[in-house]
Amino acid sequence: MTPEISRSKGLRVREKILIIFLALSLISLLITGMLAFVTINRIGNYAEQSLSELGKDAVNDSTVALKNEAEINLMRIASDQAQITQLSFDDTAAEIDILAAQAVSLQNNPPLIPSTPSFTINNQPPNPLSGTVVFLAPGSTATPQSDEYRTLAGMDDLLKAMKDADTDLKATYIATDSGIIRMYPWTSQHEAIYDPRIRLWFTNAKKSSGHVWSGPYVGATDKSVMFTCSRAIPTKYGTWVVASDVTVDTINANFENLMLDSNGYAVMVDSEGNVITSPDLTAGNTKWYEAFQTKNIFNNSNPEMVKIGRKMVDGESGIAHFWIDDDVYKGKIYIAYAPVKSLNWSFAISVPALDIIEPAVKTGIKIEIKTREISDNVYAQTTQMLQILVGLFFILLIAVILLSVKLAKIITRPVELLRQGTVALGKGDLEYHLTIETGDEFEELAHSFNVMARDLKTNIENLRLTTADKERYAKEMEIAKEIQDNFLPEFTPTIPGIELAATTLPAMEIGGDLYDFIPVQKELWGLAIADVSGKGVSAALFMALCSTVIRVSGGAEADPSVVLERANQLIYADGRSSMFITIFYGVLDPANRKFTYVNAGHNPPMLVRGDPISVRTLEEGRGIALGVVPEVKIKYAELVLEPDDLIVMYTDGITEAFNPENEEFGEERLMDYLKNHRNDSVQEIIDGLVDEVRRFCGSRPQSDDITLVIVRVK
């Protein structure tokens, strides 16, 4: 049954909707806007006046609070923190003296056997905190068997005990003139060029009779900026230096515990005015072996700040306040400073004046009173506005209802018919037909709907057929790709004295090339590269068969000719597909530097050797492809390997690659490339050769699978 609607002449739908809703919207907006304007204007005037009065009161009270409390609190904080910092650094120095005493006592006693284990850089413990690290500097004359080396091990227990007892320490360690260094906790981050004997903490300690504190520098184990306390001990072996590291981050963390607002800023400066700790002091791009540059307080553009810096360097304490205007902050700022006497350093803390507002209670009460007054007024005004809006709402509601009824008569019926059509179409009824005659867009929409249903029916049928074909092909390619990937080696084996790399690049979704590394008896390795005839799923399955047969045959036999003869029998016996495989197979004996190989119809590999460099193909040991005849006899050839020999095994995807001019890449270009890149790593040779072939082919697509296996004798 086909639904129908009578044709009515008149305005188009767009015009009908526009006229009705435009009138309704204009009336609503005019009434609501006038009322909202009057009410909000009253609220705004009152709120502005009240908040202005509150602001004046708050500013006056805050000014009084700053004068009464700021200087006392800041000076107390600065003095206390300077004393705490001095005690912390004195504790570290005392710990260094204990380490020095232990080092002295070791000189005239038999070597101690510590309970704390030690490890080398390359021998990582289960937990870095479980032991020390010991290593020798470049050019060191010491050995693990030397008396000094064994005596120095007696420091391990105390190094660990000092670090465990003082959590502020980054590390504790001891270094010697002979180039030995023992450190707790264990780390592997020292670079090979690291030599403690040329570091300032070592050289300065040797020049002093007591403990010495370094300036800030970038640590060698990470990017931390740190200080080092060190002390030299003369011994019968030469000078030993014990040391402990304290990072700037640790010092800053102690400063962060001060009772300050987040805008507070704490720093320390040394006797020359250099800023040695601050919240934003980081290593940046400075390397551990480069001099660490820091700001100097005397380079400040503010003369008041320079004046304070002079007093700090002179060891004075005090408080000052002045106005600053820079990119970071604009306003009045308070600075309190006190000396760290034992180190000849000075601690300073700065706080914006606006952050030291103390009489918050009184100000809060006044703000609360004013806020309550504003709230009461806002409530009264909003209540009045709400009453008015409620009345208007009911008036507008009646008008909307009446207009909606009128609108429903004009629009609802065609819309309902269209809805019924879409529901039917959604359920699959592509034969559904709409008939709407209203003379407007609804009639045009009904016609478009009918055309769409007819076209959709045709397209669905075509899509069903096309999708089935694509899904079948995609599934076939997916299976073939999975088969091929599963039979290629997951990784390149590590063979002593041999550098090895391989890759394969299919020309399409799947390829017919394969390579394999087969462990053979007596630590020999079988190397195989092959090219299967055909493409698609059948080629992938045949490749899987051949890979399995070759691996099984090669794993039990060291004679490559026997391996291929057995593999040929098995492949030919299952030769229902009339497919075959070309393969080069060799057995590598790294211990005796021999390479025994046979070639079943495959591209002969190239041997690069000698100085001057020569390149030749391994033509010996050749036979026909596997799977062609039931029996093959191939006599193996043997190659005695020499240092720096390079054996390049490849498939015809390299030499038979064509450029847009239909020129072949060929063996000559391959030989030239190998001569020019003979000294590259085998992986670099593979990557570069693939790029060279792609550049040669240009816009022409890859015509065949590319597979490479390269062996270098070290």
Describe this structure as you would to a colleague:
There is one protein chain. A hairpin with a 3-residue loop joins strand 3 (about 170-175) and strand 4 (about 180-185). Mean pLDDT is about 80; it is low at about 5-10. Among the domains are: about 105-245, 2-Layer Sandwich (Beta-Lactamase); about 260-355, PAS domain (Beta-Lactamase, 2-Layer Sandwich); about 490-714, 4-Layer Sandwich (Phosphatase 2c, domain 1), CATH 3.60.40. The radius of gyration is 44 Å and the shape is flat. Helix 1 crosses helix 7, helix 8 runs parallel beside helix 9 and helix 9 packs across helix 10 (about 560-575). It is about 45% helix and about 20% strand. The chain is α+β, with helices and mostly antiparallel strands and about 725 residues long.
- Determine the number of helices (DSSP H or I, runs of at least 4 residues): 13
| Percentage of residues in strands | 15-25%
* CATH C-level category of the domain at 488-713: Alpha Beta
Under the CATH scheme, the architecture of the domain at 488-713 is 4-Layer Sandwich
What is the residue-mean pLDDT, rounded to a whole number?
82
Radius of gyration: 44 Å
Tally of strands: 24
User: What is the 3D shape?
Assistant: flat
Please name the CATH topology of the domain at 488-713: Phosphatase 2c, domain 1
**Major pleated sheet:** 8 strands, mixed
- Helix percent reads 40-55%
Helical/strand content category = alpha+beta
Lay out the secondary structure:
Layout: H1 13-105, E1 118-119, E2 132-136, H2 147-152, H3 156-165, E3 171-176, E4 180-184, H4 200-207, E5 212-213, E6 217-218, E7 225-235, E8 238-247, H5 248-256, E9 265-269, E10 275-277, H6 303-313, E11 318-325, E12 330-340, E13 345-352, H7 360-426, H8 441-487, E14 498-505, E15 513-520, E16 524-532, H9 536-555, H10 560-573, E17 581-589, E18 594-600, E19 606-609, E20 614-617, E21 622-623, E22 637-640, E23 646-650, H11 652-655, H12 666-676, H13 682-697, E24 706-713
